[in-house]
Every structure is written in structure tokens, then in C-alpha cells.
Amino acid sequence: MSPLLELNSIHTFIGQFHILEGISLSVPVNSITALLGRNGAGKTTTLKSIMGLTPPRTGNVKFDGVEVRGRRAFDIAAMGIGYVPEHRAIFRDLTVLENLKIAERKKNDFAKREEMIFKLFPDLKRLMKLHGGQLSGGQQQMLAIARALVPENRLLLIDEPSEGLAPVIIEQLMDAIRFLTSHVTVLLVEQNFRVASQLADYYYLIDDGRSVQNGAMQDLVNDRATIQKYLGAK
Ligand SMILES: Nc1ncnc2c1ncn2[C@@H]1O[C@H](COP(=O)(O)OP(=O)(O)OP(=O)(O)O)[C@@H](O)[C@H]1O
Ligand SMILES: [Mg+2]
Fold it and tell me: How far apart are CA 5 and CA 51, in angstroms?
């Protein structure tokens, strides 16, 4: 089966800086694929490059077989890619319900997926009338993911969901992300290797803007030397 997302040697510049120097990866349908690498490796820039927020200068970005490099971010999102950025970026002054409704791409998007979203994140239903700014970090993260599920997305790009969260909240979030794959495909950036290794089927390791290694997550888990070298984790 052809992959849902495929990057072929993308090169991305930010100003004069050559940040990505050949990133390639391939994300199979209904999998969780982890994008790993140390701080500053280029993980966030890779996600932004896919979305057209930092458009790659060369290379290919294919979504469901269609070249999207060069399209505007808005058009790329509209093809069915949801982006859950680092630090969540929810609207603090809007209620939970308003945060969800504002994510609609088509009329009734929220109504169509409301049941699935609240099944995934039952807490959000209870918190519907609170403002984004009143939520805990974990609740904000759940809202950020829920928001990406409102429009009809086939692929979610999720950047560092566990960052700054307590272990018990991380467990809840992991359960939700696991359940997600019956609806969408996930490309996950995650610094917490334990979280990444328990969630992901496949991994891509990048370093200094370049693809280094990839394979089945199960194989990486047993490769302590690589983990130590590139991720500094044990
Ligand atoms: N706006 C910018 N201007 C200049 N350099 C930038 C800019 N944004 C990112 N970079 C650089 O690009 C490189 C990759 O950054 P990126 O944020 O993609 O890394 P990352 O792997 O997501 O790191 P982290 O784990 O810290 O989130 C880093 O060296 C960073 O300093
Ligand atoms: Mg980052």
C-alpha cells in the first residue's frame, strides 16, 4: 500500500539558514510514526515544511500521492492534514466549545465528530464552558488534539504532546493517541522516548537537519547505542 505521506529529500531554509538538508520519510496509513531527534535537530521544521509554513525549497512532499510542496498552508490543511503545534496554541479567551467550533472547515464538522471527540476526551465535555486559559496543561493538550479532529483530517502532525505534563496525564494522552489511529494516521514528534516507543509503530531519526536512520520502533528500542548517541536517553 502506498504511504499516506511521503517526504523525499526536502531542503528547507529559514532566512539564510539551511535548516533541513535532505529529510525523507514515509508514513503508512493508520500507523503512528515517530519523528525523533535531539533538540534543534529539525523536527518542528519538518512538520512546518509539510504544512507549508516553512515551505521546502526543493524535494517532494506527497500527501496521498499528490505533490503539495509549493501549495499554500491553508490549501495543504484543507486537503486533510491537521497540525497540533508545540505549546498547543489554543485560544485562552475562548471557551472549550468555541475553540472546537472555530476549527470547523465546513458547516457541521463539529456536530459530525462530536461523539468521537468526547469519547476520546470525556473530560472536555465536562469543561465545555470553561475558557481555554482556565484549563490545566494536560486539558489544553487534549483540546489542541481534539481541535485537529474537528475538520475531516486524515493525517495529524502532533508536536511534543507530552511536554511539561505529569505522568498520569501523559498516560491518559497516550491512550487517546492510540485510539486515534482507528480514525487517522499520526506523525508524532516526541522527546520523551518512553512515550514515543510505546506509541509508535515506526520511527525516523533525524540529526542536524538530515535523515539518519529509520525502521520499526521495536528494533530501535533494542538498539541502545543509537538511542544513546542521538537521543541521549537510556
Ligand atoms: N526562525 C528561525 N530562525 C533561525 N533558525 C531557526 C528558526 N527556527 C528554527 N531554527 C533553527 O533550526 C534548527 C531546527 O529547529 P527545530 O525547531 O526544527 O528543531 P526541533 O528538532 O524541533 O527542536 P526542539 O526539540 O528543541 O523542539 C535549530 O537549529 C533552530 O535553531
Ligand atoms: Mg521542536
Answer: 12
